[in-house]
Specification:
mainly alpha; Growth Hormone, Chain: A; about 80% helix; globular; disordered N terminus
């Protein structure tokens, strides 16, 4: 059993609003690492001699794979040594790699540093979720994670525009200088204001047997495992869109410098959904909201796939259908993660690492396959979204014993 949480002691010198903002900024490291460079992918490829436009997508995939694999290490480390030290170490590695990329001579070298940069960023993903779980549980955790995700989603709204401005006044190297400065700006309040949230009684030895036991606890919990798998496939669709967004919005629809504005609209729908969830989850529960959103996501994806198979989609229709899917995704993400973490508070760091690894690596592989299937139309993306919605529904049904919308307890 997880013992009652003293929110006041855990938050220490931070107000609740400041705590949410700091957690959101930590989570946003990964969004800014991807979205700010989307307007510069073409120039990066041209500068480093990349002939195939689909190969430019590896700049995103390399980062995601580093992010995914390293989470397996940062979780047990944070359960043993606390949350702050691994978090600050990861931020330092992330920032150093960003600066190193400024001087890379080849595309291969860039990909290597992007992978290692993802390794450093893994600390922000694992430790942030662990800190929130240390301080909150149940519907409260879902509410806080929704607010964190809402602020986090503001970054994809503004990051492509920042990248576009950088590309107008400078070259692509400056993007990575800005990323390094962002990491430094976040590290300062983490070092000075964030209190250690891991209760000393919950520290776990950093040994192979203890780590494997933590993994066993996570992987044998049906709710945790299958909500994680559902999130993984849905993230695969999101990563598939991010991988091919520049090719779709610029290549197919010819948006040019307006690409960041339309991309921001999609991210804005997820931010709006996260805010909506934060206002409604205490009243209706995580399952009612997320299960309804999953069904809505499937229906929107089915309509999108059917129309795209019938012929080229006008830009307005593509925006409507993609926005509908993104809104539903925003209602699911925080709730699915909260339900996966809820029974695992006693091994929160290890749990966050296993869940994060599965979601990121699974999503990255699926997203890379969807991105590489780009054929000059939106059909591969639409087919991917619908297929993944079917898998997600199957995983949720397994997690819930075949019954949707049924709360397990007052916190569900």
């Amino acid at each position: 059993m997880t013992k009652p949480i003293d929110h006041t002691a855990a938050l220490s010198g931070l107000s609740k609003t400041q705590f949410i903002a700091l957690m959101a900024m930590l989570m946003s490291i990964n969004a800014i690492s991807i979205d700010i460079m989307l307007p510069g992918l073409q120039e990066i490829g041209a500068s480093l001699g990349v002939a195939d436009e689909n190969d430019r997508q590896y700049i995103i995939s390399a980062y995601l794979f580093g992010l995914g694999f390293a989470q397996l290490g940062f979780g047990p480390l944070s359960d043993r040594f606390g949350r702050k030290a691994p978090l600050l170490g990861g931020l330092a590695l992330y920032g150093v790699c960003a600066l190193a990329i400024v001087f890379v001579p080849t595309f291969t070298t860039l990909l290597i540093f992007r992978f290692v940069q993802g390794v450093g960023a893994a600390a922000t993903r694992v430790v942030t979720v662990s800190i929130v779980r240390d301080v909150y549980g149940g519907r409260q955790m879902a509410e806080i994670m929704s607010l964190v995700m809402m602020v986090f989603m503001i970054v994809p709204v503004v990051a492509p525009s920042i990248g576009q401005v950088i590309m107008i006044f400078a070259e692509w190297h400056m993007i990575f200088v800005v990323i390094a400065l962002f990491a430094l700006a976040i590290s300062i309040p983490v070092a000075l204001s964030l209190r250690e949230t891991l209760d000393p009684a919950y520290r776990r030895a950093f040994t192979a047997s203890v780590i494997l036991e933590g993994f066993r606890i996570v992987l044998t919990n049906r709710l945790a495992l299958f909500y994680t798998l559902a999130t993984s496939v849905l993230l695969g669709g999101l990563f598939g869109f991010v991988n091919s967004a520049q090719q779709i919005l610029v290549g197919i629809y010819g948006l040019g410098i307006w690409f960041p504005a339309v991309f921001a609209a999609f991210a804005g729908m997820m931010a709006l959904a996260s805010f909506t969830n934060s206002r409604l989850v205490q009243r209706f529960g995580m399952r009612a909201l997320s299960h309804a959103a999953l069904l809505g996501y499937g229906l929107a994806s089915l309509a999108w796939m059917s129309l795209s198979l019938a012929g080229p989609l006008p830009l307005a229709l593509f925006v409507v259908l993609q926005s509908a899917a993104m809104f539903q995704f925003g209602l699911m993400a925080a709730n699915f993660n909260a339900m996966a973490m809820e029974p695992l508070g006693h091994v929160a760091g290890t749990a966050s690492s296993v869940l994060g690894f599965t979601q990121t690596i699974g999503g990255a592989f699926i997203g890379a396959m969807i991105g590489q299937a780009f054929d000059g139309t939106v059909t591969p993306l639409a087919v991917g979204f619908f297929t993944l919605s079917v898998f997600a529904l199957a995983f949720v049904l397994i997690a819930e014993g075949g019954k949707l919308f049924r709360p397990h307890n007052p916190a569900g």
